[in-house]
Structure formats: C-alpha cells, structure tokens
Design goal:
Length: 258
C-alpha cells in the first residue's frame, strides 16, 4: 500500500532532533511522498532544503495567514523566487484565519490573493488553511474562480457543507487530517461521502493533531494511514482502495513522480 502525506510541517522544531527517523518510519509504512509545507519565507527555504536532501520529500513555499503580519520586506520576493525551485510542488500554506488574531485581516486577504495568483502563474496548486473564516475563504475562491477550475486544496477540512460545495464547484481538492478519525467527528465522516473520489486527499498536518490511536502525541507522516482508514470506512472502501485513490489524486494534483 502506498500513501502520500500531502501536508506535513517537517521543518518545525518538533522534528529537529529526529527528522531522519521520522522520514524513515514514513517510508517504511508506505508513505512514498510527503509535501513539506512552509509557513514563512525562512520556513520556505527550510522545506526546500529538506526536499533537496530527501527524494521522497517535496516542498510547498508560502506565507501562512497567521505569519503574514511578520513578513519582512523582501520576503514576498523570496517566495516568488523560491516558487521556481525544482522540487516545489505547491504554494502555501495560505488562506484565512479569524480564530487567532496574529495578522490584521486585510493583510491576510492580500497574501491569500497574491498566493493564488502566484500559484496560477507557476501552474502549481495552492494550499488553503481556513479557520473560522469560511464565508471569507468562499468569497475569495469565488472571486478567483474564472472560466477554468482552480488548482488547489482545502487542507485539514472540517468545515460546513456549504463551504464544501463551493470548494468542489471551483475545482478544489479536499484533504483530511487526523481530526477525521476522532469519535465525535461522525458528521464530518458523513459529509466526506459527498466528495467525488477523484478529489480526495489525506494528510497529517504533522506535528499537530495526531489521528487516533495516536491522539495527543506528536503527529508524523507515518500516521497518515489512520486518516485514510477512516475515509475508506466512510466511503465503503477498503484501506487498500482508498490508499490507491488518494495517492493517485496527490500525484496528479502535485505532479509527483510515478
Ligand atoms: Zn498546516
């Protein structure tokens, strides 16, 4: 069985001591590719460095909404430059966040729009973070959606049916993280059945929010199979089938090697 972890923060301090072992465990458990997702300009450099060292790791470069206020002059230009690096397969993570108050909303909006545009220019998918900002994210997606489908992913999805409908309508993929496995999230598993099989992705969003049965521990890419398992069950598929479906989708969306 093969999996792709489409969202892991491999450059974070939580992994600084044992990143080699973390990646080895992932590969051992069938994770053929991981997308290391950046949150700042310096984190974008770091994800590219990891990707350059490890064949199974690919990088996303961008500025997370919660870090946009801290962006220094030149950071955006650096992101534009790094976006052309060979192993960069996505832009982000971008999006909007009204839960934390780290970045004035206007600045978040500006960076979200810029990153969608950069992704379009480079023909890369963009990775959307959405926390307590669903109507705002929906508005930006609608504004960005032209005649052709948007190329991107709504990551760690745990939103409403209305948001899901728009995300699918504008062409986005939907990625599930560990929260899908939590007992109380039966409504989310039910909602996931609405998503066409060719739009489904799985991720860990590690080191955060580990899936059952690892809940409460540091999350890591090797745990992605538990989320795939929950998704498989909801869709009435075997884990093998869901692994094959989500892996094919990830390869197609991010242009990963066969
Ligand atoms: Zn993330």
């Amino acid at each position: 069985m093969q999996f792709v972890d489409t969202h892991a923060h491999l450059d974070e301090d939580a992994f600084s001591e044992d990143i080699g072992e973390v990646i080895a465990r992932a590969i051992e458990s069938g994770v053929i590719s991981m997308v290391a997702v950046a949150t700042t300009a310096s984190s974008s450099r770091a994800t590219i460095e990891i990707a350059a060292r490890v064949p199974n790791v690919f990088a996303s470069v961008g500025i997370h909404p919660n870090y946009a206020a801290q962006a220094k002059p030149g950071d955006w230009e650096l992101i534009e430059e790094l976006a052309a690096s060979p192993k960069v397969v996505a832009i982000g993570e971008t999006g909007l966040d009204r839960y934390w108050d780290h970045t004035p909303f206007e600045i978040q909006l500006d960076y979200f729009r810029r990153q969608i545009e950069l992704a379009r220019t480079r023909s890369l998918p963009f990775i959307v973070h959405c926390r307590e900002a669903e109507p705002d994210v929906v508005a930006v997606l609608r504004e960005a959606a032209g005649t052709e489908a948007l190329k991107g992913v709504l990551h760690s999805f745990c939103g409403s049916e209305a948001t899901l409908d728009v995300a699918l309508e504008v062409g986005l993929h939907i990625s599930f993280a560990g929260m899908l496995t939590f007992k109380k999230n039966e409504p989310l598993r039910q909602l996931s059945k609405k998503i066409p099989l060719d739009r489904l992705l799985v991720e860990t969003d590690s080191p955060y929010l580990a899936p059952l049965p690892h809940r409460g521990k540091r999350n890591e890419p090797s745990f992605v199979r538990h989320t795939a398992d929950s998704l498989a069950e909801a869709h009435g598929k075997s884990l093998e089938e869901m692994a094959a479906i989500t892996t094919a989708n990830a390869k197609r969306l991010f242009g990963l090697p066969e």
